[in-house]
Specification:
Blueprint (H helix, E strand, L loop, with lengths): L5 E5 L2 E4 L1 E11 L18 E14 L2 E2 L4 E8 L9 E7 L4 H11 L10 H8 L2 E2 L3 E3 L2 E5 L4 E6 L3 E6 L1 E2 L6 E2 L2 E3 L8 E11 L11 E11 L2 E2 L5
Length: 227
């Protein structure tokens, strides 16, 4: 048994301990800056996004998750907090059955303190869950330069570039710093476009908000760096 396997207790159920360190790349339908980060309603009144996670290090109980990739499509008819959304997870086809179950549990908000992570909240607010897909996930991410691509066959293509300066067109750099964020503490903001060909169709993600973030999450929430 992994030495960290059990830590949390919820009633008679002992929550499995997990830890994820990953690079996240997101494209949503809102204006640059993403109103959600400022506790403001979404630009178009609704929220839809494609997300890719490149896991560098991770475990779920005894299950090693190092080197795996996972992704998701999310769509809400209004702000996320109003719920009634739909979601679909995509897990790297190279993952074995234990790894698939582990990633599924984490991204569905299981073994997580209440409201501690974005995965818990997204799952809670998206009761319409499509079957999880197991496919090849290609991603090429350069967070510092705000450049990235991701592709899942028959699901989506994501292309990210720097925000173009409104006058010169030169790359414009902006960052989020969220000391109490439930997803990350800091992220690079960018410009993204997503095309979809799967069961969830995203129609508004064209040169809209994108961001890159280094994630470090556990069932208790974001792990903050200490100085």
């Amino acid at each position: 048994m992994h030495r960290h396997q059990y830590r949390h207790n919820r009633g008679d159920y002992k929550m499995i301990n997990w830890n994820i360190e990953a690079t996240e790349m997101v494209n949503c339908n809102c204006n640059f800056g993403c109103p959600c980060q400022f506790s403001v309603l979404p630009t178009d009144g609704l929220c839809e996004a494609a997300v890719v996670y490149d896991i560098h290090k991770g475990y779920y109980g005894d299950v090693n998750l190092d080197g795996l990739k996972t992704a998701a499509i999310y769509q809400w008819p209004g702000p996320i907090h109003e719920g009634n959304g739909q979601m679909q997870l995509i897990i790297d086809e190279s993952a074995n059955n234990d790894q698939r179950s582990a990633i599924q549990a984490i991204m569905m908000g299981e073994d997580t303190d209440e409201m501690a992570t974005m995965w818990y909240i997204y799952s809670l607010m998206a009761p319409n869950k499509l079957d999880t897909l197991y496919k090849s996930i290609f991603c090429d991410i350069n967070s510092l330069d705000r450049i990235g691509t991701a592709r899942v066959p028959d699901v989506f293509n994501v292309n990210i570039k720097p925000i173009p300066h409104i006058v010169s067109g030169a790359p414009h750099r902006a960052l989020f710093h969220l000391p109490n964020g439930f997803e990350f503490t800091q992220a690079e903001v960018a410009c993204g476009t997503t095309t979809t060909s799967g069961e969830i169709s995203l129609q508004r993600n064209n040169n809209t908000h994108a961001h890159f973030a280094a994630l470090h999450l556990t069932g208790s929430g974001v792990v903050r760096q200490t100085t």
